[in-house]
Structure formats: C-alpha cells, structure tokens
Design brief:
Blueprint: H1 4-12, H2 29-35, E1 43-45, E2 51-53, H3 58-73, H4 88-103, E3 118-122, H5 129-138, E4 141-146, H6 149-160, H7 163-166, E5 169-173, E6 196-198, E7 204-206, E8 242-247, H8 255-258, H9 270-273, H10 278-293, E9 297-304, H11 307-319, E10 324-332, E11 335-343, E12 361-366, H12 375-388, E13 392-396, E14 401-407, H13 408-415, E15 434-435, E16 446-457, E17 460-467, H14 478-493
Parallel strand pairs: 3-4, 3-8, 4-5, 8-9, 13-15
Antiparallel strand pairs: 1-2, 6-7, 9-11, 10-11, 12-17, 13-14, 14-16, 16-17
Helix pairs in contact: 4-5, 10-11
The structure holds S-adenosyl-L-homocysteine.
S-adenosyl-L-homocysteine (SAH) is lined by residues 84, 86, 122-125, 127, 129-130, 145-148, 151, 174, 228-229, 231, 248, 250, 271-272, 275.
Protein name: U6 small nuclear RNA (adenine-(43)-N(6))-methyltransferase
Keywords: Methyltransferase, S-adenosyl-L-methionine, Transferase
InterPro entries: METTL16/PsiM (IPR017182), METTL16/RlmF (IPR010286), SAM-dependent_MTases_sf (IPR029063)
C-alpha cells in the first residue's frame, strides 16, 4: 500500500499539459452516458454516485475514445476489434508538447512562407489519432505513415469520415521489404502499449503496459539494430519539408515483454506493439535517419517508454552532433513516459542539452533506508560513485557535502553506467580525500555541483544537489546526473527499490 507521502508526491507531479482540454475538465462519464446512448451500457455508478467504466473491457475503452473524439473534437472515429485504442487526454499531451516546441524560439522559425504547421506521424496506426487531433485542435497538416494494410486502410477510413480535416491528412503506406516485418504472434491479444487513462475524477490509471522496469532489472540489449521496414528515409519524399515528426513506437521486443495487464484492456496487436530490438532499436533508426535528413524536419520527436532508453538515446544524440535535445516527462498514473526531441537546425539561442534552463537545485528523498545505513554511508557512496568515472570529488564530512566536478566525457560515462553499477562491490570505499572545506574549482567545460545529505527522520534522508555554474556548456546534463544518482542510491540503500522518482 503506498504511503501517504508517496501518494502526496504522486499527486504533486504534473499529469497533464496545461493546454490540454482535459487539464481542468476531465471526461465526465455521466454526462457522456446521458448524451450518447451507445456509451450508456458501459457506465456504472459507485455507492457515492461516481460514474465509472470497466477499463478491462476493450469495448468500453473504445467507446469512450469514440465519444470523446466526437463530443470534444467533432471527430468521427472507429477502430476494429483488438487494435490499439488510444486515450484522448494522454495523446493530447504529446500534441501540446510539440505545439510548445514548434512555437518556441529555441530554433529559428522556418523561412518559408508556409503558414500551416506540417507534421509526420511515424506509425499512425488504425486509430490515426495524432493526425486527427493535431488537425482538429491546431489546424496542422500531416503525413501519417504505416506498414500494415489494416492500419493504412483504417487510418484512411478515419480520415475520410472527417471531411473538415481530411484535406490536411495524407496517409502514406511504407513499402515493407519482404521479410523485414517480423513480429511475434499473429493474432490480437488483449494487451496495451502502456497508456494511462484519466478517469472522471481526474485521476490517471494505467493501461495495459507494464510499469517501466527500474533500470537495475532491465535486460534490454541496447546494441540491437532495427531490421524492419523503412522509417523516415525512403518514406519522406525528395524536397519535402516538415516542422516535426512524432512517433509512438512499437515499444517491445516481444509480446512476452509487452505482457498482459488484467486490469485494463486497450487492445494492441503484435504489429503495433513489437519490433525486433524494441523501442530502442526503432527510435535509434529514427535518429540515424535524422542524421541523413538533417533539416528536412525542424524537430524530430518520439515517445520513449523507459528511462534507461531515454538516457541511452540522449547520449547517442549528443554523439550524432545534433544542435538541440529536449526531453519531457509524461506522468501517467504509476508509470511515466518521456518525450524526446532533437534538431539539426542551429539554435537561435544557446540551449544545447535538455533541462539547460531548468532548475539548478534538485532534491530527492531516500525513504526506507536499511537499518545499518546512515547519512555518512550515503555520502561516501556518492563520492566513490562519481570517482569511479574519474570525476573530481571533494567530500566534506563536517558539512555532509560532496563537491563534484565532471568533464563532458565523465558525465557521459556516468549516464551510460546503468548496467555496470550493478556489479559494483557493495562494500564502501575507505575514507580518502576527505577534507573540511576545500574550495572547488569551476570550469565552463565541466559540470560542477554540490551534493548535500541531510537526515530527516530515522530511515529517511534528503539528498540535495545544487549546480555550481549554470552557464557551463554541460549544465544541461545536471538533472540527468541527479536522476542517475537517485536510482543508484535507491538501489543500494533502500528496502523498497522500485519507488524511484
Ligand atoms: N500512433 C498510433 C499507433 C502506434 S502503434 C497510436 O499512438 O496509438 C505503432 C504503429 O507503428 C503500428 O501501427 C505499426 O504498424 C507501425 N509501424 C511499425 N513499423 C513501422 C514503420 N517502419 N513505419 C511506419 N509505421 C510502422
């Protein structure tokens, strides 16, 4: 059972983009049931009169999506049984994040006179949800691509059912080279791709995707290459220009990995959910294609299902010479998804890495500390962890602080460490280089930050991190470094290791 504290923490986390139609007005099941008789049989009422639907019933979730698209967006929509059923509030979050990106001045606006924002939805699915939402909410035009006949046929059908936006949307079939679309299984199973739903009370519940595994249990092979049909290269035509691409990728390496969540049902066929190498391989292919296509797109974006993959891909992007990387977190009930965006357009102002303009003070708590560990152990562990990667560390045992200075390469090494720290010896390093009050040396090319450890109550520590030099060229790596540290400390010291974040 989650503690009051963790419930509070979750409640404080942003769950919905402020521009999202449902941010202040979550779907009202009772109202929808009264307006749409086809939805009525799926709604039931709790003892205190609250309207609910059965999330384990695919027909109920599909009907909810249908009536929401009709009622709130004026869209006619349907998908065949078993196909991935999107949730409108969550899909809208991604659209609004892209809206922020394309309207921001991080990279210069297009010089062309094109007034309409043009997007490319990689893998639009039978549901064609992103083009339909983007066109109806914001008047954007889209190319929506897909590889399967059923997706292309139904996406086209969904577009044609909406003459007011049909002109804005082109569905493009990706030619599938023989033998390249190899996915496990052949029939629909009731499983989802990790969505969450906002219920009438505004709380978000997880759809079928299993919670992202904490990085220390993940066995994903980060080196597997994508071997499927073309993604962007070979699909984008000569001379075409887009403001952005977006993608809700097939997240899993196999249907077994996708798993089944008996609590929810949002459909999802192997073709929609699985690709060899999973999301890492698929998004890596988008990155590789983007290196060739460069400024054909102002922004390349993708959803990412797991934090470890986000970190891996962010590092990969840096190596590819992109000019800007941005990330965001989409909190969805107990699971999180991330948005990853990058560009090859030279930035208008100097923001290179994610979070560069974000907080210079971050903190997290370590709860449920194992009895034998105290603040000093955590402090020593922080010092020895960063030292392992060659960072310079000055520990102050009087103030319970460690000052860390790490070069760009050392930061990268820390961020790529997800797999290796598991093998680290659990014993603590001896107290070396301990001083009381050395003054740190800052450099514009390195990341300098101070970590302080405070005892809150027995068994709970507060760890604070403060960035020493915001203008450093690598300051954008600060929050990733702190996230990484949090995971490592949780894994090493806390009884309940899954509570990361
Ligand atoms: N965008 C929809 C569907 C996502 S499921 C949504 O958010 O609900 C992923 C989709 O990607 C599937 O429809 C699958 O057929 C498609 N897909 C897989 N490989 C692809 C490729 N190489 N190019 C285009 N689409 C692809």
């Amino acid at each position: 059972m989650p503690s009051k504290k963790s419930k509070r923490k979750r409640a404080e986390r942003p769950t919905i983009h402020p521009k999202n139609k449902y941010a202040d007005n979550p779907p009202d099941f009772a109202l929808l049931a009264s307006l749409y008789p086809s939805f009525t049989p799926f709604v039931w009422y709790t003892g205190d009169g609250r309207a609910r639907i059965d999330w384990t019933d695919f027909n109920a979730t599909r009907e909810l999506t249908r009536v929401l698209l009709l009622h709130d967006h004026g869209l006619n929509w349907w998908i065949p049984d078993g196909q991935l059923c999107p949730t409108v509030p969550n899909r809208s979050n991604y659209i609004h994040w892209i809206q922020d990106l394309v309207s921001s001045d991080i990279i210069p606006k297009n010089n062309t006179n094109e007034k309409i924002v043009r997007g490319f939805d990689i893998g639009t699915g039978t549901n064609c949800i992103y083009p339909l939402l983007g066109a109806s909410l914001l008047g954007w035009s889209f190319v929506g691509s897909d590889v399967t006949d059923i997706a292309v046929d139904w996406a086209e059908r969904n577009v044609k059912s909406n003459p007011h936006v049909a002109e804005l949307i082109e569905i493009r079939r990706v030619q599938c080279c023989h033998g390249t679309l190899s996915v496990e299984g052949s029939h629909c199973r009731e499983s989802g791709n990790g969505e969450s739903k906002v219920d009438k009370s505004g709380s978000v519940t997880d759809e079928a995707k299993p919670s992202p595994s904490p990085s220390f249990t993940l066995k994903t092979d980060l080196n597997r290459n994508y071997s499927g049909p073309p993604v962007l290269l070979g699909v984008v035509r000569d001379g075409e220009k887009f403001d952005f691409c977006m993608c809700n990728p097939p997240f899993f390496d196999s249907m077994e990995e996708a798993g089944l969540n008996p609590k929810t049902s949002c459909g999802g066929t192997p073709e929609e959910m699985v690709c060899p190498g999973g999301e890492n391989a698929f998004i890596s292919r988008i990155i590789e294609d983007s290196v060739v296509l460069k400024e054909t797109f102002r922004w390349y974006t993708s959803m990412v299902g797991r934090k470890i993959i986000l970190k891996f891909l962010t590092s990969k992007l840096r190596e590819m010479g992109v000019t800007v990387v941005k990330t965001t977190e989409f909190v969805q009930g107990q699971t999180c998804r991330w948005g990853l965006a990058w560009s090859f357009v030279p930035p208008a102002r100097k923001i290179v890495f994610p979070h560069a303009t974000e907080k210079s003070n971050l903190s997290f708590t370590l709860e449920g500390l194992q009895r034998q560990f105290g603040a000093i152990h955590v402090l020593q562990s922080i010092e020895s962890f960063f030292r392992t990667f060659g960072a310079s560390c000055v520990m102050n045992t009087c103030l319970f602080t460690v000052n860390i200075t790490a070069s760009y390469d050392q930061c990268n090494a820390v961020l790529k460490n997800e797999a290796t720290y598991l093998k680290e010896d659990a014993s603590f390093n001896t107290m070396e280089n301990i001083s009381c009050g050395s003054s740190p040396h800052f450099s514009l090319n390195s990341l300098s930050f101070q970590i302080s450890v405070f005892q809150q109550i027995p068994g709970t520590l507060l760890v604070k991190a403060s960035l020493q030099l915001r203008d450093s060229t690598v300051s954008g790596m600060f929050s990733l470094m702190v996230q990484q540290l949090e995971e490592i400390l949780r894994h090493k010291f806390c009884k309940s290791k899954a509570g990361s974040n």
